[in-house]
Amino acid sequence: MSPFQTVRGMRDFLPKEANMMRYIESKARKIAGLYGYKEIITPVVESYKLLAAKAGEEVRLRMYTFKDLGGRMVALRPEFTPSIARLVATTLKNEPKPFRLFCVGSLYRYDEPQQGRYREFWQSNFELMGTQKPEADAEILMLTGDLMKSVGLKNVFFKVGHVGVLRRIMASEGIDEKMQNSVMQLMDKKQYQDALEVIGKAKASQKCLNTFKRLIKLKSGNFSEVLKKIRGHVKDYEEALNAVENLEEILTLFLDSGCKIGINLEASFARGLEYYTGMVFEAYIPEMDIALGGGGRYDKLIELFGGESTPAVGVAHGLDRIMLAMQKQKVGLELKAEKKVMIIPTKKELKNVALKISHILRKEGITAEVEVMGRKVSKALEDADRRGMDYAVIVGERELKENAVVVRDLKKREQSTIKMENIVNSIRNELI
Ligand code: HAM
């Protein structure tokens, strides 16, 4: 590997992409503010044990794990949820509930690099902790819909399921949690035949196998019809029926909220992470078959980390994938057009005046760059044009004697001599 290339799976963001990434991040931060989620910043490096506890095989095997110089087994975070659960189980344990917490940053997974799948990627993450109520699950769906809309994405839809339905059927058949996890991993990868074999080997009843087969066969679609069918299939499993009811309540609350996002209900939908206990979902657009975000309810994780029983629900949005989706749907950024000014001294003795003017403009909130290549005025103007500047301030000896400079409107290709004290006003009010 050449030392002058990025490491496989890692990417540089050039100014245009970096700008887009920060734009999406700013939209996520805005949503966090609107919904009352407080931002926290957690470390990139965490104890391997914490991150591995409930990550599930898929994520666990892909962690960047190493021993630090003190001999501690650590890993680069593959997700935020364990760090936040750790905080709530320890430092925040006496704070009043609910917790609405937000974070944003980079995560690391040794995934096979391909479009929309990187080894370093970004998420905005929202967790609502301390309540089991379905309105909390509905809120997580709502804020995800709002984020997708606020970046300008169209035709977003959610794939939704409830791991409680599948897990509770298995539990009532005496299948232990470890075995349940294997089944859920296989279901997540759509390896249904293998999943059925594991259930068979776990000595589940034929009724259980048939129920799973029916749930797998069930096509996703209109949520009330699919719910009715699921209910029919699991009618003999009381606990699973409660899960279906919970899902119906969440989806009804969500749809009644006025968020217009399509729902595809999938009875056999499972997600790779092991900590989920209830509703799970992922966000998609029709143009891409990879999820733009995913989340769900996990009621046992905080307890597992030594905290008191704290039911929770959350979501992480893949910012890299949202960026890709925006590019696919050709969504432009709605940025306020800021005026940009290039200040060009006509000779090197006037550098100090150029710097002084730039300082005055910036204090007034106007973006100002000083010509630093020692170019002649004509070349400097060409360069300013090429780089999309709006104005050039040309600092010349003759005008300076009158305490003035030449201000050129690079778009209109017009210029005037302007007194020093009027530069800001003439640029701001386009008076050239
Ligand atoms: P996740 O489904 O593993 O969930 O990741 C969430 C999102 O992160 C995915 O939908 C995807 O957009 C993005 N993502 C994941 N891996 C990659 C990758 N290799 N390259 C680019 N983007 C990727 C979680 O991380 C859970 N912690 C979500 C959660 C929060 N559940 C409850 N609270």
Task: Report the CATH C-level class of the largest domain.
Answer: Alpha Beta
Radius of gyration: 28 Å
- How many E-type strands? 16
Which structural class do you get from the secondary structure elements?
Answer: alpha+beta
Write out the distinct hetero groups bound to the structure: histidyl-adenosine monophosphate
Under CATH, the topology of the largest domain can be stated as BirA Bifunctional Protein, domain 2
Instruction: Determine the strand fraction and express it as a percent band.
Output: 15-25%
| Number of contiguous helices | 17
Shape: elongated
End-to-end separation:
54 Å
CATH H-level superfamily title of the largest domain? Bira Bifunctional Protein, Domain 2
Low-confidence stretches: none
CATH architecture of the largest domain: 2-Layer Sandwich
Account of the protein in words:
This protein is of the alpha+beta class and 432 residues long. It folds into 2 domains: 15-328, Bira Bifunctional Protein, Domain 2 (BirA Bifunctional Protein, domain 2, 2-Layer Sandwich); 340-428, Rossmann fold. Helix content is 41%, strand content 20%. The chain has 17 helices and 16 strands. It has helices at 15-35, 48-52, 57-60, 81-89, 134-150, 163-172, 177-188, 192-201, 206-217, 223-233, 238-256, 301-304, 319-328, 351-363, 377-386, 397-401, 423-428; strands at residues 38-39, 45-47, 65-67, 73-76, 99-108, 120-129, 157-162, 262-265, 279-284, 293-297, 312-318, 340-345, 367-370, 391-395, 404-409, 414-419. The strands form 3 sheets. An 8-stranded mixed β-sheet has the order 1-5-6-11-10-9-7-8, sandwiched between helices. A 5-stranded mixed β-sheet has the order 13-12-14-15-16, sandwiched between helices. α1 (15-35) packs across α13 (319-328) and α5 (134-150) crosses α11. The longest helix is centred in the first third of the chain and has 21 residues, at 15-35. It is elongated. The two termini are 54 Å apart. The relative contact order is 0.12. The model has no long low-confidence stretch (mean pLDDT 95). Bound molecules: histidyl-adenosine monophosphate.
